[in-house]
Amino acid sequence: MWSPPAEHPLRRLFAGLTEHTFVGSLGIADPPLLDYVSTLLARFVHVNEIYRLRNLQGQPLEQIADMVMEAEGLPPEGRTRREFYRHIGDFALFWTGVYPEMLARLRSSLCKDYFVNYCEQGKRSYYIAGTCSVDTPTRDESQVLLRLSEQFELVAYGLRQVRQEWESLPPLAGPTLIR
């Protein structure tokens, strides 16, 4: 899983917008949760990260239904199953919160996801990822995943607000390179 370093300008931008929105507007002062959400936004800037899960043939999984089928085929214990379900939760949260207008296309009648409720599947996936037997280093993240499961709709709403914030930012003056 790719993640930009903490000092990366894009990560700092998302961290500031997330903290401002969640703490200032929603009253959610949960640093681990806010860090997770802002890192998710920075990671999902790259389309390869959004569609990073692959099937056994190496093809990207683009629908939640396919992701769940692959995850269900994995052993119940272990890191891989946890990572699959965490990603499914992230995928559902990203589209539900940041780009809800895309859900109609993602869930068109021509797709398996037509029958998938992104909120319910996101909550379920975060719950499964948070309760997978894990080692001590990931225990803190498991607690965040369980909170995401419980507060999925509120966090999705907060992400819509974060998007409104970044869309209202003034354009940068002159050419800028982000490294």
Q: List how many beta strands DSSP finds.
A: 0
* End-to-end distance: 19 Å
- Tell me the fraction of residues in β-strands, as a range: under 5%
Shape summary: globular
Total discrete domains = 1
Poorly predicted sequence stretches spanning 5 or more consecutive residues: none
Oligomeric nature of the chains: single chain
| Element-by-element helix/strand order | HHHHHHHHH
Give the overall pLDDT as a whole number: 88
Radius of gyration (Å): 16 Å
Largest sheet: none
Helix percentage: 55-70%
How large is the count of helical segments? 9
User: Which secondary-structure class do the elements indicate?
Assistant: mainly alpha
Task: Give structural notes.
The structure is a single chain. The protein has 179 residues and is mainly alpha-helical. It has one domain (9-167). 60% of the residues lie in helices and 0% in strands. It contains nine helices and no strands. It has helices spanning 9-25, 31-43, 47-50, 64-72, 79-97, 103-106, 118-131, 139-150, 152-167. Helix 1 crosses helix 2 (31-43), helix 1 packs across helix 9 (152-167) and helix 7 packs antiparallel against helix 8. The protein starts with 8 loop residues before the first helix and ends in a 12-residue tail after the last helix. The mean pLDDT is 88.
